[in-house]
Each structure stands twice: as C-alpha cells, then as structure tokens.
Amino acid sequence: MRLDLEWTDVTALHAGPATRLVDHGLGIDLDALRTLLEADRRLDGVRLDLARPGEACRIARVFDVFAPRAREEGEDFPGVLGALARVGGGRTRALAGVAVVVTDQQLDNPATLALIDMSGPVATLSPFSQTHNVVVSARPAPSATRNEYLAAIRQAGLRAAVYLARAARDVAADRVDVFDLPAPALAPAEVRGLPRVAYVFQIHSHQRPTGIDEGILYGDPVRRMLPTLVHPNEILDGAVVRGFMGRAVTTWATQNHPVIRALYAQHGRTLWFVGVVLSVAQATEPERVRSAAMTAGLVADVLGADGAIFTKIGGGAPHVDMAQAAAQCAARGVKTTLIVEDMSTDGSEEGMLLFNFPGLDALVNVGSAQEKTMLPPMERVIGAEDQAALAGGGPSTYGAICGAIEQVGASRLMARVQ
C-alpha cells in the first residue's frame, strides 16, 4: 500500500474574505468556518481565535489538537467524520505549520485540562507553540450530555482540519512524503537478512470505558477489541483518532506518528518494518492475559518479527498491559523496546518500573508529567476568558503543557536514570 502525503508549508495565518493559500500565507474565512461548525446541534455557539508563534498568548482548556489533512479521494477520518472506508492509500493533502486546537468549554475545572503558551520559557516544551493555531471554542447545547459534547467538539476539530487542508488543493505541494510498505511476506530476497521490526500501538485504556460516540478506530469505540493488525499508513491517514481520555497523546501526534515515521525512515536500510498491531489496555486480568497472548502471536507468528516497539496510553493499568504483552513477545525470542512515561509522584523515576519481567531491559522514558515548571504572565488568554488568573501565570507541571509529554514519543523530553 502506498500513501503520498503532499505537504504545503504555511508561514502566516490571517482572517480573510475567503479561505485560500497564497505565497504560503493561509487566509481563513472565519464566518464560513464558524457556520460549518455551528451546524452541529450539540453545540451552542462557536468562537474562533487565531494564535501565532511568538505572541504573548496562552491557550487554555485544551482538549485535543488536530493536524489539517484532506484526502484527494475518498473519506476523511472515516467512521468518525466521514463514511466508513479504508484509508492509507492514495494522496492526502497536509498543511505544515498549522494546527487546529480544540478547547473544552464544559468542564468546570480548567486546571485538569492542558494549555499551550505561544511564547516564553514554557513554550519550548510544546511543539504547538511553533504552529499557527486555529483555536475552536464551542459551548455545549443545553441538552448535550458530556459524551455528546466531547464527540461534537472532536468532530468540530476534524471538520476544521479538513476545511483548512482543502485550501491546499489549488497549489503545488512543497514536498511529498511517500509511505510505501508491501506485505511482510513480499520482502525481496536482498533484504531478508535485515531484522524484522513490528510496532505495538496501544490506542485506549479501559480504565475509563468509552462512550457510544467515542469512535477511536474507524469510528469504533473499541469496547471489545482484540489485538488487531493494521497497515501503518492507515494510522497516518486518519483511521485512528484519540478518544476522550487524558492528555498523554494528542491526535496530532497520532497523525504524525513518530514511531511509524522513524521505522519508515529505516525501512529497507537497517530494518524491515513488518506492520502494526493495535491493542487496548484491558479492565480485567483474564482479558489482559488474552490480549497479551494474542499480541505476541501476531508479532511473532504472523508478522515474524525479530523485534517490537511498544507504546501505551494512560497510567498504571496500561503500563502493565504493555509489559505483559512485551514479556510474551520476549519469551518467543522477540527483542522489545518500551516507550514509557515516568508515572512516579516523588521524583524517584521508579514509576516507569511498574513491572519486572526478565528480558524487558530496553526502556525509553519520555519524561515526567510531575516535573514542576512556572508559567509566566501572558497578555492574552484564549479558551478560558472566564479564568482571569490564568493570565497571571504561576506554578504548574509538565503534564499540564499540551505536547510536552507525548506517550508515543513525540515530546521533546527524555528522562535518563543514572
């Protein structure tokens, strides 16, 4: 399967009478975009703001971040936004330097949500301080339940992402990333000596059950999902979006998945990338044992992998799920590397060691959400205009900075234990 991701660089963002790209400047018809998003009856009014790198601006109440993408043919984000269809092949337009940031206007306590500083010392922790951001803040309709509201604002973010990316269809792409991965069994003879590497991507944790509208994989809420093989292109092309839980992985990071892109970069050179196994962290021990055994079977017996990389989403239970699956792989002779977040609250770095299985000795720590930082004062706050204190700054943690701790490895942090 081959996917051509056609990139257009955006270096400036402004409101305009029409949504179009001219000389790498993106003009947005905010009225037209607002009308599109307000058609959802679960929402009661939509506010749109623009935030640019270097501004003395803080975006608060961040729910999720989306990368602007639009397929040339077929459905965008199928099952969640578009009709059900398989993605991962063909051509998709993408904007570089632009992000859609969606805020949560229903939760009473904004401190439980993430924030983005567009300038200052904290801005260095987040990649979204360097993107031109379209911020979508929508109020819930009086009749909307919590799950209905979250489903609505996620769809609003996806609609905005597609709307912006379609502006690139009338301009030539600045560059094209080609992702072309054949079936594992079709590896040519000259590369059969390379180590075969798989990726195990945990996409949800049932420590918080999904809602009926919480589509994660092709619109499915993955309530009874067993380990599933997918082509990596499907993940890059919108088959997987983040659910409603946590802030440890943004949809942006999934769309630009660093593990998948890194494996592609070495594919056919130092390794042979054989595919992706999707999993969920289970709620009970029997389910966890079943999932671990099936994951190991797919990695070792179906993909024939020599090595596997694992990531998780969420806290302690997902950690254990990941470890059990990796231990089963190691028992079958598959070498493993686990990407983990330090979950300790006392600074001891022992939180990444919630398990002790023989052979699991390659761990990459993407930082500690408990690490303390200080928010500087800001001239403007977007997404939480009712919280005047947020402009004044104060103590915070890395976990509160959107994009600082990305459990799929997209963050700029790494902790090293001596």
Protein model, in words:
The chain has 418 residues and is of the alpha/beta class. Helices cover 19% and strands 30% of the residues. The protein is built from seven helices and 21 strands. It has helices at residues 30-37, 146-165, 232-236, 251-255, 258-266, 285-302, 316-331; strands spanning 2-9, 12-15, 20-22, 25-28, 43-51, 57-66, 69-71, 90-96, 98-104, 114-117, 132-140, 175-180, 196-205, 228-230, 272-281, 307-311, 335-342, 363-368, 372-375, 380-382, 394-397. Strands 5, 6, 9, 10, 11 and 20 form a six-stranded mixed beta sheet that branches. Strands 14-15-13-16-17-18 form a six-stranded mixed beta sheet, sandwiched between helices. Helix 6 (285-302) packs across helix 7. It is globular, with a radius of gyration of 21 Å. It starts with a strand and ends in a 21-residue tail after the last strand. The mean pLDDT is 91.
How much strand? 25-35%
The gross shape turns out to be globular
Distance between the termini: 43 Å
Main sheet overview: 6 strands, mixed
Q: What is the number of helices?
A: 7
- The poorly predicted ranges are none
Helix content: 10-25%
Report the strand count: 21
Calculate the mean pLDDT score and round it. Answer: 91
Helix/strand-derived category reads: alpha/beta
- Element-level helix/strand string: EEEEHEEEEEEEHEEEHHHEHEHEEEEE
Give the radius of gyration. Answer: 21 Å
Q: Gist?
A:
The protein is of the alpha/beta class and 418 residues long. The protein has helices spanning 30-37, 146-165, 232-236, 251-255, 258-266, 285-302, 316-331; strands spanning 2-9, 12-15, 20-22, 25-28, 43-51, 57-66, 69-71, 90-96, 98-104, 114-117, 132-140, 175-180, 196-205, 228-230, 272-281, 307-311, 335-342, 363-368, 372-375, 380-382, 394-397. The protein is globular, with a radius of gyration of 21 Å.
